Amino acid sequence: MLNIFKNAFSKKQKQDSQIIQFEQFDQHQLEEPEVDNHLPFDFQIIDEEAMKIIEQEYDNKQQDQPLNLEEQQFEEDLIDYEVKVNDSLYGMAIKFNVCEDYIMRINNLSSDLIFQGQIIKIPKKDEKTFPFVHIQEQKEQLEYLWNPEAKSLRFDVMYCNNIQNVQGQLNLASDLILFNPIQQDHLEDSHQKLRFQACISMSDINEAVYYVLPNKYGHLDYIVQIMLSGIGKPKFEKKHRKQQVTLKEQKQTIATVFFRHAERDYVGKLYAEEIKKENCITMARFITEACSNYTGVVELTQLPFVDFIQDPAQKQNLNVDLDEIQDVIGQPMGNLWASLEYVPILKGNSNCFTNTTFKYVIQSIPAIYRLANWSKLYDIDIDGSSYHNMLQQIRQIFPMLLIIKDFDLNIFGVYISSEIHKYSQGFNGNGETFLFNVDSRQDEIVTFVWTEKNRDFVFCDESGIGIGCGDKFGLFIDQSLSFGYSNPCSTFDNPRLSNEEKFGIMHMEVWAIEQQ
Predict the structure, then answer these.
(1) Which residues form the LysM domain (predicted)?
(2) How many domains does the chain have?
(3) Is 198 domain-assigned?
(4) Which CATH number do you get for residue 237?
């Protein structure tokens, strides 16, 4: 390197015809030597400190050059990303496969705190990456079912059922979902051995959602629920094909399957809470998008256990004989809650619901909401009897449970699946709405579902709220919130819910699902 600098300085001296003088010579060399301008000047004595500075600057330039090129390349490939409500800097680093510190550096962030709506620059990648732990490649017995060009993801999960939760791999592709146990676990019963391998075609899926649920040990479980319009049993599918096509178009669910994110990966390493949540979000979004875009008709669904939805309205449409699906059906929802180590709860005290009656009501609502907790939105004992305040409180909120206890101690109510529009013209809502009353002696409920005779679901004007109609409202709540009316109606074929047509309201509460 010394020769490089010597030659560089020599050439510059020759071109400029300059004489370089050094000040740090010995005293006996103060006299300036004669220099032949026709000869190339060369170094005889050089200051060591000056040389160290020159070498250091040269080394720094050599090191900085590729870094600057890298920075310039990344600067050209940055994209703007808007921060969502559940995003974190750590999660974004995983999602986009980039170092967390690098995101902070290119965005001039002094901490990892970010907020919803903030624009963050992210290095652009050729392919989108997903936050999942890669697992060792294994040959699948149903490998021939996969589309080799389909994009696929793999996750470590537990297949939740009423017999035995089984750990395995959930494989997602654009056309189907496969669950393969880590080991070929078998369960011996009195009739046969059951294997927990499952296959679900995207054509039989309506949508998927994820939940973050506290278990009995005080920890959080991360659950993905898949809503199905088919269960894969050939005789059942053939017999009810026409009805299932209609229900599929209406996004009606006849069965549901649950998968819980595993606590550890295949080598025993614990998953971080953030990773489990990000994975479940990815699974739910991937499945919902894939089933929405899938147009093929492939009969591949094979499920050892499902939670079959016993909604009376759908039961009328399908005319299901439970013997037809006995080898795939799960047990009632209460047992499935036990397998998930979780039971939905009321977040607040109620003068109308008991824990038992609440659970009975929850088993009658659409499957997508059956794992949600419920929070009290309005209570006339606390919030007063202002009709306008109540409508303001429940504005843009759905679904909801409205429950009443009258002065004769009758308890009844309604599940409303859509938003109540203030002073709307005519009836609103859909066929998921139903009336119910509570048998206090048996601590049970009776539901009255849509008969399809009319579409008079929910009515709201300045005089009050009406549910169901025919000649009269099935349930009407006066704007004073002090009394109401109940009559049989053709929308739900319900009996009178109170002793007399007019009843006085002792307690009234409105409950809504707790948002994740």
Answers:
(1) 79-122
(2) 4
(3) yes
(4) 2.30.29.30
Q: Half-sphere exposure of residue 152, counting CA atoms within 13 Å on the CB side? A: 21
Place of tokens 């020759």: 14
pLDDT digit string (tens) for the chain, length 516 residues: 444 444 444 444 444 444 333 334 344 444 444 444 443 333 344 455 555 555 565 555 545 444 444 444 444 478 888 888 777 776 777 667 677 777 888 888 877 788 888 898 887 754 433 333 333 333 333 333 444 444 678 999 988 877 777 888 999 998 889 998 876 444 444 444 456 788 999 988 989 999 888 876 678 889 999 988 888 877 777 777 766 776 666 667 788 899 999 988 877 788 999 999 999 999 999 999 998 888 877 678 888 888 877 554 444 456 666 666 766 776 666 667 777 777 788 888 999 998 888 988 888 887 778 888 899 999 999 999 999 999 988 888 889 999 999 999 999 999 998 888 777 778 988 888 999 999 877 778 899 989 889 999 999 999 999 999 999 999 999 999 999 999 999 999 999 999 999 999 999 999 998 865
Residues 348, 251: one domain?
no
CA distance 485 to 474: 8
| 331 and 312 together in one domain | yes
Domain co-membership, 388 together with 505: yes
| Omega of the bond leading into 332 within 30 degrees of 0 (cis) | no
Q: Are residues 261 and 352 in the same domain?
A: no
- The verdict on 231 and 334 lying in the same domain is yes
Residues 31 and 13 in one domain: yes
Are both 191 and 254 inside the same structural domain?
yes
Domain annotation covers residue 205? yes
Compute how many other C-beta atoms are within 10 angstroms of the C-beta atom of residue 516. 14
- Find the domain containing 97 and state its range: 77-123
pTM above 0.85, yes or no: no
Which residue, 60, 89, 123, sits at the end of a domain? Answer: 123
Measured in whole angstroms, how far is the alpha carbon of residue 286 from the centre of its chain? 10
